[in-house]
Amino acid sequence: MKETRLGEFEEVILLLVGILGEQAYAFRIAEEFESQTGRAVSIGATHSTLDRLENKGFLKSEMGSSTPERGGRRKRIFTITALGKRVLKESRDFKMALWGQYPAFAGKLNYEM
Asked: How far apart are alpha carbons 107 and 113 in whole angstroms?
């Protein structure tokens, strides 16, 4: 049986793939991670996480077209699978339920989806 849990870093990377759409390739994902979080991430950590998420069935990838800017090399573009979307939703719902139980914020969540 495949692992269906997400670590925090995996969850952020998965969300960034969804946000970036057709621009969801490793280098761009790493750049966006740093931009969104203010934390540095190595390209190696990004690649290994993308591979792990793909092995879990949360992502799929395909090779994009070659570009002159990359010396003719092709980019590996990632997209979220239906399973990946379901796991993200379950993670969000679980966290929202916990936040709703936290007395300091109970009943004050304004961004329910």
From this structure: 14
